[in-house]
Amino acid sequence: METEFEFELPKGYVDKNGDVHRRGTMRLATAADEILPMRDPRVQQNSGYLTIILLSRVITRLGTLSAINTHVIEGLFTMDLAYLQDLYQRINMSEMPTYKVVCPHCNQQIEVPLDFLLA
Q1: Nearest-CA neighbor of 52 among 91, 81, 23?
Q2: In 10 A of CB 52, how many CB atoms?
């Protein structure tokens, strides 16, 4: 199973020296990645900050930067942030579980996606 995914940012992160960092790696998120940031006061004050913390936890490499933290994610261009949010969703939600049911109208067995967000 693949757990790390390479990416290339559309614009790139510009560090304090003016160097542009575009290529990176994102790992699959864990339950802790999604739960622990909810305790952070920045998220409690502004739920939009959850994305910043999540991405800082799952991006394992960006160019030659020695560490990826919230400061780096805050410094991304909007287009790059949107790109990373989309990548996060695609790699972590790519295999939605399904279950088999029998259609009450035609008695055919079908697979229905199990969407935990609708519960």
Answers
A1: 81
A2: 22
84 vs 92: CA distance, rounded Å: 12
DSSP 28-75: PP-HHHHHGGGGSHHHHH-TTHHHHHHHHHHEEEETT-S---HHHHHT
CA dihedral 89, 95, 69, 44 (to 10 degrees): 70
- Tokens 């790519």 correspond to what residue? 94
Q: What angle do the packed helices 49-58 and 78-92 form, to 10 degrees?
A: 70
State the Cα–Cα distance between residues 71 and 55, nearest whole angstrom: 11
Q: Which helix H or strand E contains 92, and what residues bound it?
A: helix 78-92
Write out the chain's pLDDT in tens, 119 residues.
789 999 999 999 999 999 999 999 999 999 999 999 999 999 999 999 999 999 999 999 999 999 999 999 999 999 999 999 999 999 998 665 666 788 888 988 887 765 544 43
Residue keyed to tokens 């909810």: 38
